[in-house]
Design a protein that fits this description.
- By secondary structure, the chain is α+β, with helices and mostly antiparallel strands.
- The chain has four domains: 120 residues, no CATH class; 170 residues, no CATH class; 52 residues, Roll (SH3 type barrels); 133 residues, Alpha-Beta Plaits, CATH 3.30.70.100.
- It is built from 16 helices and 13 strands.
- The strands form four sheets. The chain has a five-stranded antiparallel β-sheet with strand order 9-8-7-6-10.
- Helix 4 packs across helix 5, helix 8 runs antiparallel to helix 9 and helix 9 runs antiparallel to helix 10.
- The longest helix is centred in the middle third of the chain and has 38 residues.
- It is found in: Cell membrane.
- It is a multi-pass membrane protein.
- GO terms for molecular function: mechanosensitive monoatomic ion channel activity.
């Protein structure tokens, strides 16, 4: 028992006798080298000489300077090493960063110049890193950074919540300068956009001042955010604060970019709508809202992908996963994809316009709307047909809305006992009616005695109405028909109807059923001359 007690005492003494820092220099893997470098540059374990052991091929003094500069660059950019992702393998080979596959490890994709490589069985910061670190340092820290810090008096370094007093003053100055620059840059951008508005006005009759004002403000703020991100390292915050500020600025920039691009889409769509309103095609008007929704969705998706990079998500993996998922969804919804392709084909080929009267696939009616998936057609009875665009792009469509004229053809049947003189007069009269009708094509028409029907003499009437609207066509028919009826009544011409008549030559106390026709030439000519009264 006494021996055990002595052994425990010796162990406890040996533990208390150890130095607080027993970390050894280990360069056997990327993980060990990075840990060695950063560990010995922490305030509680600070040792420049040990940290400089991660630098290869330089003097001791320069190695210390390079090791410090690497740490300062990472801190200035707010880049904190996540050791969970750093490889522990001694023989690690880089196959991700896109460079030649060899024993090397890139710490961050934002600064690919800083990476490790294996030299003589140990991992060091690469020779390229040693060469470029000074240029990187000057890019991160603007000129005068060291001078500003050296001019801060002693009390300025007093910390409050992890931030020194002079840094608080710097934040206030940044805010004041940022507000002033935002106001100035906003004025400049708005002035430039107003100059460009004259170019847009060639396509748009509407003023774009309100839209341009919405576009200039976020653009000015976006520029200020970039300037703040460039000069924020001059305040030399700790890495946690730098990381928070820079990530916040990057998120703000992405949100502003999304807003700016959405406003640009709105301006372009507004110009497009104004331009298409002056074209004959009505299908272009329907394209505007579809393009607007599509472009805005693309802008938001691109913004979300960019936002994911701020939080360290590999967008390549996301896009690859989305592609695989998109392929699976496409296979599962082939009809939807076909309809979307059909929509683009309709807008490219333009087989009809909004408002056209079309016929095809057993459906006839007026085109009211062309959507992403289907086209809405209103029939004569005012019911709505929704036809998938994939089907509509494949079937044969008779676009009656593209007709130059509306053809009208009918046959007039008159009695068999009508005298030839009246038949000729009636034909001439109908021709005259068509010639003076205000809504018929006078250059092309036919009115001829074409045949002998079962119960009537057939006169063909073939003409064309000028208006393409269905309602106007019916009104034109009405006026034409009434003029023909008035002509027939004036001439004494009767229209036949399907019947059989038994003619009896002699019958006691019965009169002959033959009609009496007036074929006087003067009367006929007078009737033909007075046809114009039907259209006055």
């Amino acid at each position: 028992m006494k021996k055990i007690y002595i052994l425990l005492c010796l162990i406890s003494v040996s533990l208390f006798a150890q130095t607080p820092d027993e970390t050894k220099i280990d360069l056997s893997s990327p993980y060990k080298t990075i840990y060695t470098h950063l560990h010995f540059l922490q305030p509680e374990t600070y040792n420049e000489e040990k940290a400089a052991k991660t630098i290869y091929g330089e003097t001791a003094e320069k190695s210390i300077d390079i090791a410090l500069k690497i740490k300062q660059v990472l801190d200035g950019k707010g880049l904190r090493v996540d050791f969970k992702n750093v490889p522990l393998e001694a023989n690690y080979k880089d196959s991700i960063s896109g460079v030649e596959i060899k024993n090397q490890y890139v710490l961050f994709s934002k600064v690919p110049e800083i990476y490790l490589e294996k030299i003589n069985g140990k991992w060091y910061y690469s020779e390229e890193t040693n060469e470029k670190i000074y240029a990187l340092y000057h890019n991160v820290f603007p000129v005068g950074t060291d001078f500003i810090k050296s001019m801060v008096p002693g009390f300025g370094h007093i910390e409050l919540f992890g931030i020194e007093l002079w840094q608080y003053l710097g934040i206030i100055i940044f805010v004041l300068i940022g507000v002033f620059l935002t106001w100035v840059i906003n004025k400049i951008i708005f002035y430039v956009l107003k100059l460009l508005e004259s170019s847009f006005m060639r396509f748009s009759h509407n003023s774009l001042s309100k839209t341009l004002d919405k576009l200039s403000r976020p653009s000015a703020l976006l520029i200020v955010f970039y300037l703040v991100e460039i000069y924020i390292p001059t305040l030399q915050f700790q890495i946690d604060i730098n990381s928070f500020l820079i990530k916040g600025l990057e998120i703000g920039q992405i949100v502003l970019w999304i807003y700016v691009f959405l406003e640009i889409v709105s301006v372009l769509i507004e110009v497009f709508v104004s331009y298409t309103s002056r074209t004959e095609s009505k299908l272009d008007d329907q394209l505007a809202p579809i393009l607007s929704r599509l472009l805005k969705v693309l802008v938001v998706l691109a913004g979300i992908l960019k936002m994911l990079t701020v939080f360290g998500v590999n967008t390549t993996t996301v896009i690859a996963g989305a592609s695989i998922g998109g392929l699976a969804v496409a296979l599962a919804s082939q009809d939807t994809v076909k309809n979307l392709i059909g929509t683009f084909m309709i807008f490219l080929d333009k087989p009809f316009q909004i408002g056209d009267w079309i016929e095809g696939g057993g459906v006839e009616g007026t085109v009211e709307e062309v959507g992403f998936r289907s086209t809405r057609i209103r029939a004569v009875d005012t019911s709505i047909y929704s036809i998938p665009n994939s089907k509509l792009s494949e079937i044969v469509i008779n676009n009656k809305g593209l007709r130059q004229y509306r053809r009208y053809q009918t046959k007039l049947g008159i009695r068999y006992d009508t005298p030839p003189e009246l038949i000729e007069a009636f034909v001439m009269g109908v021709r005259r009616i068509i010639e003076i009708h205000p809504e018929t094509l006078t250059k092309s028409y036919n009115v001829e005695f074409t045949g002998f029907g079962d119960s009537s003499l057939e006169i063909l009437v073939n003409t064309y109405f000028l208006s393409l609207e269905w309602g106007v066509e019916q009104s034109s028919k009405h006026r034409l028909h009434m003029a023909i009826l008035n002509l027939a009544a004036a001439l004494g011409v009767d229209f036949a109807f399907p019947s059989q008549t038994v003619m009896i030559e002699e019958f006691p106390e019965k009169k002959n059923m033959n009609m009496t026709y007036n074929t006087e030439v003067d009367k006929i000519n007078d009737i033909i001359k007075n046809i114009d009264k039907n259209f006055k």
